[in-house]
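Q: Sequence in, structure out?
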Amino acid sequence: MKPLAGKVAVVAGATRGAGRGIAIGLGKAGATVYCTGRSVRGGLSNMNRQETIDETAELVAAAGGIGIAVRVDHTVESEVRALFERVKAEQNGQLDLLVNDVWGGDPLTEWGKPFWEHSLEDGLLMQQRAVFSHMITSYYGAPLMTARKQGLIIEITDGVDNEYRGNLYYSLAKTSVIHLAKAMAEDLRPFGVTAVALTPGFLRSEAMLDHFGVTKENWRDAAAQEPHFLMSETPAYIGGAVAALAADPEVHLKTGKALSTWGLSEQYRFDDEDGSRPHWGNYAATIGTDASSEAGDSEKT
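A: Exactly. Output:
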């Protein structure tokens, strides 16, 4: 069964982490996925990472979908406009799903510093990469949806509330896109288009595995450094969450809400790669931790 066969999606920031997991999850469900980002074959990214959108598109195809890699810097308006002009031309105006997962804030975040001692330049760049890019992308993506009076926009964030997340600039970026989803939902409501925010739990991304010096096979060994990592989830989990949302004919009932992988897993009953169903919310409650303070794709340790 391919519940998203014939559907068209753009995953902005599909190079690695949650974005790659989402793209693959949509491919598994049969979607055509435009995988966008700045990292292409031929060199390392500015974060010194090897993952590329080309690889992501190939993984989408291997999973059963159609993967299309398009190099886009989502902070450059002309490149974003060209992306959606291409989608419109190639897909006869159809765009069913837009996922805003552009981030790039990990190397810019100085944990443990008050905002006045933190690099202002890096703090502002974080907003450009992780908030302005989402605004530009939705600005050009939404009209394809409103024209057809259907569609779903998902803002990927960290946490489900507006609580402080340990760093002013990081916190501002992550809470801003939650409000962005809520505000877009109001403007889009008359056109039948849905907008939500979505957070993973403790994400076991490629960068986090490298951070702890472990692999996909022995990842549990990282618990010696960070016990909470035992409750982490792979990028495939949020991929399952997005695919489930995109296939739900009543997803409009969630418009404007901030959702979580663990909450959606209870409703849609999807599993992580190993068949488990991590629930960061329940775990955080048992240890007396705000789920928002630890969720997401960030090297906070």
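DSSP finds ten helices and seven strands in the chain.
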